[in-house]
Structure formats: C-alpha cells, structure tokens
Amino acid sequence: MSVITYMSSTDSLTCVLSLILVLKLGTNPTSVDSVVVGTGNEVRIKPGQRLHIVNQLYPYTIQFKEDPTGKNSGTKRPRESASDDRESPREAQKMKAAKLTEKVPVLVNHGEAQKHTERGGLWSQGLKISMQDPKMQLYKDDKVVVIKDKYPKARHHWLVLPWQSIPSLKALCEEHCDLVKHMQQVADQMVQQCPDSSSLSFRTGYHAIPSMSHVHLHVISQDFDSPCLKNKKHWNSFTTDYFIESNDVIQMLETNGRVTVKEGATELLKLPLCCHMCHKELSTIPALKEHLKSHFPR
Ligand code: AMP
Ligand code: ZN
C-alpha cells in the first residue's frame, strides 16, 4: 500500500483525524467524486469519497491505517497535548496493555496500491478503475464496457463489464437477464471482429469464484498462449467447470432467477494439468505450454 504525504509540489494536504483537507493551488484539474475543485479552493475528503488529480489519472481514497506509535497522525491528537485530561493514567495503562493502536487517515493511491496488495483489499477493486480508463476500453455502449484483461491468459482476453454496479454472479437476479444477454451479444461481436477469429476458437464465461469485484464476463481465445498464464490455478480456472459458460448463467437466471455455483469449486483449481484439446496430462506448466504449441503454432 502506498501512502502519500503530499499531492504535488503545489497542492497542500492536511490530515485532520477523520477527514483530509486538500487545498488546490496548481492548474491541473482536480475533483472529489465528480465535483471539480477550483484553484484556490479547499475541500474535505471523507472516507468513501474519491479524489482525482490530473484529469482523473490519479485516484485516491482515504483509508484508516493502524499506527501503533501514534506519532504519525499528521496532527497532534488532543490526548497528546499538555492540557488533555480525558484519560486517567490507569485508563492509559489499560490501553497500552491492550496494545490498542491508533487509526490514522491516509490517502491511498489506487494505482500503487494495486501493485502491493495482490490478495484482496484494493487489488480486488482494480476492474472498477480499469473500466473507466479510456486506454483499457475496447468498446462501450450505454450498458456495458469491454476492456483488455490486464494480465491476459491467452492471445485474446477481454472482459465485458456492466456500467451498473453488480459485485458478483451471486448478486445477479431475474431482472439482470437482459443485461447478461447483452453482455453475451457484445462478447460475440468482439469475437467476430477479431482478425484471428477464423483460426482461433473463443469461450465466454464467468469464474465460479471471482477474485475481482464487479461482475465480469471473460472472453478468451483458447490458445492460452500468454506469459501471464503462470500456474495451475490460472489454467484450471479457464479449462474446468470453474469456468461457467455465459449461456449457462443466462439459463440459470431464466429458470431460477439466480446463479448457483456448485460446492467445491475451489477444488477444481487443484486438478491435474490436462490439455483442453486432447486431454493429455502434463506434469508442469512449462511442459503444458510446450505441448500447447503443437495445437496452436504461431
Ligand atoms: P476473476 O475475478 O478470477 O474472474 O478474474 C479477474 C480478471 O481480471 C483476471 O483475468 C485478471 O487478469 C484481470 N485483472 C486483474 N486486475 C485487473 C485490472 N486492474 N484491470 C484489468 N484486468 C485486471
Ligand atoms: Zn493436447
């Protein structure tokens, strides 16, 4: 996680317990959520709000970070001041014994944070940032956006995301049927427009247990020829029943009004490495990759 203590050479930042004050001095466009902050103006950012500097290139949010020393809160806490009398020495002792830590607000740079918190936390919110990034967008309409997968597991790997905030498959219900069908149509359209679509086959589907927040449909060519495909988990997530076909999701929504994921999906990720084309079992990822070259010569 990256904590910034300044914003730019010209913008100033003050830490005040549960909020952060930002004084905009420079000329670069700055906004809090969608509200633009004019030069010379001071704004307060509260937890949950998003500060963008330089045309939305640098999104920041406030997070509360444990500070066991109590020294880095940015402003002196009242109980550290000479006149403070809120805590008796006994209470202070108890606090110390319980190893209570202070929580201080810090501005977190999302771009940096993603690199360092691969397991959960801000990392899992990365799609929400990528889907807003014009450089990642391949197609968009009023309902969905298609982005390049940042770590493609094949020669062509895209994600179709609805603009509507839907955290995962579990949150889908009957009313999302048309949206999910539209996501599938857009995926088919993307495949049709791909110059390799005559030589490569594609699959469209969802991971049973996604790692990233915001529902996303994978559109992936079946060569799996990519340096980002690094381990058994990656392989099995696209070649076993862990990968739920988009049509199956649509059917579940139409018949049951919800998507059910079979129990034990995570176990599928531990299955032996098996070629999806000829079912040959391979002992390692490098051996599998070598084998795949016979099915998908460059
Ligand atoms: P899953 O949540 O398992 O369905 O897969 C999430 C997909 O998102 C993976 O294929 C990742 O390579 C991809 N991914 C992870 N972070 C980002 C990001 N910040 N922008 C775009 N794609 C990402
Ligand atoms: Zn094979």
From TrEMBL:
What reactions does this protein catalyze? a 5'-end adenosine-5'-diphospho-5'-ribonucleoside-2'-deoxyribonucleotide-DNA + H2O = a 5'-end 5'-phospho-ribonucleoside-2'-deoxyribonucleotide-DNA + AMP + 2 H(+); a 5'-end adenosine-5'-diphospho-5'-2'-deoxyribonucleoside-DNA + H2O = a 5'-end 5'-phospho-2'-deoxyribonucleoside-DNA + AMP + 2 H(+); a 3'-end 2'-deoxyribonucleotide-3'-diphospho-5'-guanosine-DNA + H2O = a 3'-end 2'-deoxyribonucleotide 3'-phosphate-DNA + GMP + 2 H(+)
In this chain the HIT domain maps to 124-229
Motif Histidine triad motif mapped to chain? 214-218
List the EC numbers from the record: 3.6.1.71, 3.6.1.72
Q: In what ranges is there compositional bias, type Basic and acidic residues?
A: 77-94
Q: What class of enzyme is it?
A: hydrolase
- Compartments where located: Nucleus, Nucleolus; Nucleus, Nucleoplasm
Return the GO cellular component terms, semicolon-separated. Answer: nucleolus; nucleoplasm
Stretches the record annotates as Disordered: 64-94
Q: Which GO terms describe its molecular function?
A: DNA 5'-adenosine monophosphate hydrolase activity; DNA-3'-diphospho-5'-guanosine diphosphatase activity; double-stranded RNA binding; mismatched DNA binding; single-strand break-containing DNA binding; single-stranded DNA binding; zinc ion binding
Keywords on this record?
Answer: DNA damage, DNA repair, Hydrolase, Metal-binding, Signal, Zinc, Zinc-finger
**Which terms does the UniProt entry file under GO BP?**
single strand break repair
Q: Which residues form the signal peptide?
A: 1-34
* Protein function: DNA-binding protein involved in single-strand DNA break repair, double-strand DNA break repair and base excision repair. Resolves abortive DNA ligation intermediates formed either at base excision sites, or when DNA ligases attempt to repair non-ligatable breaks induced by reactive oxygen species. Catalyzes the release of adenylate groups covalently linked to 5'-phosphate termini, resulting in the production of 5'-phosphate termini that can be efficiently rejoined.
- Name of the protein: Aprataxin
Q: Which organism is the protein's source? A: Solea senegalensis
